[in-house]
Each structure stands twice: as C-alpha cells, then as structure tokens.
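Late entry, evening session. Most of the bench is empty. Finally got around to the prediction I had been postponing all week. Sequence below, unchanged from the version circulated by S.P.
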Amino acid sequence: MEVVYEKVTINGVVQNRKTKPILYSATDIIYPVDGKLTNSTSRTQGCYNNDTENPRLNLICVIYPIIEIPAEAVPGHSWTNNNTQYLDHKEKFACGEVTFRLINNTQLVIWKPEKVVDKRHIRNCTDKIYSEMQEYANWFQKRFRCKLGLPEIYQDYHLAFQENDPVLRDYVEKNGIIKVVDGAGRVIAWWDQSKGHPEFETSDERIAETRVFAPMKIIWLEDKIPVLENKIDALESTLTNKVLNNLEEKIGSIIENKISQIIEKQLSRFFEKPKQPDSFKDQGLNINHEKEDFERGVIG
C-alpha cells in the first residue's frame, strides 16, 4: 500500500505533495504472486477470456468483528433492514472494486471481485483468500482508524467452470438449473446460467478438482492398472510358494514327531516282559509246598 496525497498548486506550480493527506490507495500490485493463485485482475461477469479449463472464483467474502469502531466517518450508502443498520463503502483497487460493508458498527464484511484461479491450485483457495483479504482489512483499519478481529469466511465461495458439453448446455438453457444432491439431500454441485451462459459450479474444492483432473486421472489409472495387476500376480505367487513351503515343513515336522512317538511306544511294548497273573503265582506256590511235603514223607 502507498499513501496518496492531494497536490497543492499555487499559480500552476505544484507545492509540497504532503501538505494534505486525503486517502490511502493501493499500489498497482496489491499482492505478490506466490505460486498459489494466478495474478489476475477482476474480469467482467461471466468472462473467462477464452479460458475454459481454469475455474472462476466468485462470492469471495470474509467477515471481521469490529473491536474498535472507526474513529473517522465511513462514507457510503446506508440503509436499515429488520432493525439492522448497513453501510456499504466501495473502493477501487488494482483488482477492481472492493466492497466494505459495516453491520451495526460491530462487523465488517469485505467482498472482493471474482477472479480466475489456476486449476492446479484449487485446494489453496481458502488460505489465499484469507491472505488477500487481510491486505484490504489492513487498509480499512489505517484509513478509518479502527481495529478488527480475526476473519472468518462469510459465505461459501463458488468455483465455476464454463460448460462445453453440448448436451448439458442445451439442457441447462432449456431448464435453467441442474442440481447434484448427495445422500443427505445436500446440494453439492449444480449447473446454471446465472452469468448468461451454462456453467458448472460447486463450493467443494474436491469436486472442483475432480471436474478438472478426472480425465487425466482415468488415463493415469488405465496405464497403472496392468502394472498393478502384474505386481499383484507376482505377490500372490510369492506368497503361495512361501505358504506351501511353510506348510510342508510343519506337516513334515508333525509327521516325523508322531511317527517317532508311535515307533518308540511300539518298541517299548515289544521289549517289555509279560506280567504273570496273580492266580499263576498262587498255583506255583502250592506246587512248591506239595513238593516239599512229599520229600519230607519219603525221607521220614
């Protein structure tokens, strides 16, 4: 930002330019290009300058709480609605006309002109909006001597793509709008012609990315699927061989242990002496006693 002072002339000669400061104004470039968004100025409504791939970012607005009300009067159009007082102050910057709306002197809403966004940086829109809006908020604080709090998104911004499909264009031109609804009944995307020609719009960055990059992603997947199939087949073969080898080792170990136990048990039974029944032992004792008695009788 730079301060612009009123030129004081005496007899056509410019005197000290800093005699009477009248307002703050933006430089030619309000925010440097940092690779996130393209450096584009505001365009006329619905004009892409023949750019059909990059989306148009519109409804760019944030809201700030006013911590200290402006010390200087803010000029602009004021009105009251439902006991709420509004005041719109418009200022021209390098990007176009920016609107500052005061709500009951407690909140400040800033609207920025629409711009075309580089499709590669759709995911960074929110961060970039906050960064850019802070520049305008700083200007407002300096210009009207007030203090603002932390910003919030006031309204979901829209990412709009010019629709080139002839079938969709014809349908939108005849019916006005097509809505895409999710399982919860929420509208997540739509086609309309609010700018005079059919457009696809969404407030979801992921859907916008899908809209732009879906054809390239499909081609990439088609190229990768055969490679993935070969890798999966090789992995299945390796795992199958590994599992079979482990099973063979475990089964062989189990069989070997069981057979050795069975053989050992059978051998122990083969070499074990047979046990005589108790009845046989008693009969043997009786025979011995009879033999002893007989021998005593003969000798006596």
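Two things to note before I forget:
The chain has four helices and 17 strands.
The longest strand covers residues 84-93.
Will write this up properly tomorrow.
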